[in-house]
Structures are given as C-alpha cells and as structure tokens.
Design a protein that fits this description.
Helix content is 79%, strand content 0%. The chain is an all-alpha fold. Among the domains are: 101 residues, Tetratricopeptide repeat domain (Serine Threonine Protein Phosphatase 5, Tetratricopeptide repeat); 64 residues, Alpha Horseshoe (Serine Threonine Protein Phosphatase 5, Tetratricopeptide repeat). The chain is built from 21 helices and no strands.
Length: 365
C-alpha cells in the first residue's frame, strides 16, 4: 500500500470515528458538541454525507428547521436518494407546515422502501393536514393491512374522520384503539372519544371517558372542558360550573371559560355571580359572549331597555348571529312594542340568511 493510500485510509478511519462520536453526542442531546464533530469532518470533506445529515439532524433538534433544510438538500445534491437526508428533510418541511413539500419528499423515500410503516403514517398524516381525505385514508388503511393494530394509523383515521365531521366513524377507530390498549390507553384517545360524544350530543355517554381521563390527569384542560361541556349539554349547571372553576384555578384569565362559568351562574339564577364573571372576562379583552351574557342578566332582571341597547350594539358588530336578533326582539316584546320586534326579525331576514328560529318567532308574533 502506498503512503498516499495509507494516509487516505487513516483519514477515512478518523472521519468515521468522529462521525460515530457526533451521532453518539446527538443521542445524548449534546447538540453543540455534536455540531463541533460534524464541522470538523466538513473542513476535511465538505460533501461528506454522514456529516451533512448529522448537521441537519443537529440543527433540526436545536429547532432551526430552515438551516437543517439546507444541510439535507446539500447532502441530496451530492448523494441523491440518501434515505436519512430524505427523512430529515421531510420532517423539517412538516415542522414548517409545508405539508405538500413533505409529501413530495416522503414519496421519494417510498420509492426505495414502500413498506416503511413510519414513513407511510407520516405521509397519511401530511395528507390529513392538507385535507386530502381520500389519499390520507387510503394510506392509513394500507398501514393497517400490514399491521392491523398500528396505533398511529388507527389514531390517524380517528382524527381524519373527526376533522371531516364524521364523528361515528371517528368513534369506531378510537374505540378500536381503546380495546387494544385498555390498560395503558393514551389520555388523548379518551378525550377524543368524549369529544365525539359531545359533537353527537350524546353527552351522557361522553362523561365516563372524560372522567377516566381526569383520573389519569386531574387538571387536564381538555378533560375538564369536555366534562363541563357535557354537563352543560345535559343542563346540569352546578356540575358544569364545578369543572369550569377547576380550569379557572389553573388559568384565571381564560375569558372563554369565565364566560362559560358566567353562563352557568346565569342559568342557575345567580345573577350577581354571573355579572362578576362576565365583567372579569371583559376586563381581559372584549368578548361578544360576555357582553351578550350581561345583556341577558339585565333582561332577566327586567331591565329590558338596557339589554336592548347592548344587543343593538352587538348586532352592529355581528350581523349574522340570529340569536342576537331573537333576544333583541324578545326585549321589545317584553316592552310591549310588537312592531319593533317584527322589524328586528325582518331585518335579519333581509340579510338572506335562513333561520327556522327567526321564522317561528315571527309566526308566533
């Protein structure tokens, strides 16, 4: 072996050792040190595929996906079809919400390995994100043909059907997930099943799933919200309020929850508490439902002129909300002004929006 060959061999060995060290440091999350190793390699061999992928992985792990993209692209320029670079590049595009680009890269990867379940589920997820129901479902089902209990595909199908408002189909997949993992089921599966029941208005059936989720995490926001909303749907205001207030213990400035709690107090006839919660919401930021709540409190207290004034202002800002027109018309009826009530309802109809509630109220008047 010539001296030159020996030198090249030694250099290759050194690069290999530094590369292994870099990847080990990456595993240990020592990103700056890993970058140091890969940079050393690139000073000697600027197009080294291991170092370029390593730099891509390190910068991606650091949260700088745009810089990572440039390393992966540079690797692919000199080493077309490098699976690790393709995988990293697609994950970067996904993290940057550039799902069409991610799909394009993953499809390239699948040319080399069309039975890679990890990549197939990622492609299906990306198609779901761009709302391509047909392709997403086909790929998830292809994964299930290969591995019938694959959790990513089952959960993905649940999310896909949920996103397209096909709640019964979503339930089918999430319940399947529950059957396969009844002991160690992910809390998100429980809240997802509960949310399907909320959407289907089968509130009573949703409650046990949110309760099971809360046994795992007593202050999980989605479980508390779902449970409170189920009790709200069943008109169990006190139970609903208990869970709205548990959220507020953790997040006292959540104006949506303050308004929901205000609604519960109002429906229970506790107008002072309702007013307090609505005002607390408005102190954070303007909220249509908090103003509506205050108007309904004034109306419940017989202050119809005050309520009407608030409702008129809200209608100027939100002309398409039929409920505002119904409440305003009712205020005028309470004040004995039928003509004004009719005028308000007809004003809504002039917008060209159909509402059976508006039509029914007009008919009654």
């Amino acid at each position: 072996m010539s001296d030159e060959e020996k030198e090249n061999d030694q250099e290759t060995t050194e690069i290999s050792d530094i590369s292994k060290k870099g990847y080990q440091l990456l595993k240990e999350n020592r990103i700056a040190e890993a970058i140091d190793c890969f940079s050393q390699i690139l000073l000697v061999d600027k197009n080294n595929n291991y170092a370029l992928v390593g730099m891509g992985d390190a910068t991606r792990k650091r949260g700088d996906c745009r810089e990572a993209v440039s390393f992966y692209q540079r690797c692919l320029e000199f080493h077309p079809g490098n699976n690790y670079a393709l995988f990293g590049l697609a994950d970067c595009y996904k993290a940057l919400n550039q799902y069409h680009k991610a799909i394009e890269i993953w499809e390239q990867y699948l040319l080399h390995d069309d039975r890679n379940i990890t990549v197939l589920t990622r492609v299906a997820d990306a198609y779901r994100k761009v709302r391509d129901f047909k392709h997403s479902k086909a790929i998830y089902l292809r994964v299930l043909e290969m591995e019938e209990t694959n959790p990513y595909a089952i959960i993905g199908l649940g999310h896909l059907h949920y996103d397209f408002k096909e709640y019964r189909d979503a339930l089918f997949y999430w319940e399947k997930m529950l059957r396969h993992n009844s002991d160690s089921v992910d809390i998100r599966v429980l809240t997802s099943i509960g949310n399907c029941h909320r959407k289907l208005k089968t509130f009573k059936e949703g409650i046990p799933f949110f309760e099971q989720a809360l046994r795992k995490e007593p202050y999980n926001f989605y479980a508390l919200f779902g449970l409170a909303d189920c009790y709200r749907g069943l008109n169990h205001q006190e139970h609903s309020l208990e869970h709205w207030n548990r959220i507020l213990e953790q997040d006292p400035r959540n104006k949506v929850i303050l308004t929901r709690a205000g609604d519960a107090y109002r429906n229970m006839g506790e107008y002072d508490n309702a007013q307090d919660y609505y005002e607390r919401a408005l102190n954070i930021e303007f909220d249509t439902y908090a103003v509506l709540g205050l108007a309904l409190v004034a109306k419940a207290r017989g202050k119809y002129n005050q309520a009407a004034t608030s409702l008129e202002r809200l209608i100027q800002q939100n002309t398409k909300n039929y409920r505002l027109f119904i409440e305003l018309a009712d205020c005028y009826l309470k004040l004995g002004d039928k003509n004004q009530a009719v005028e308000v309802l007809e004003e809504f109809q002039k917008l060209g929006i159909r509402s059976t509630q508006i039509a029914e109220m007009l008919e009654k008047i």
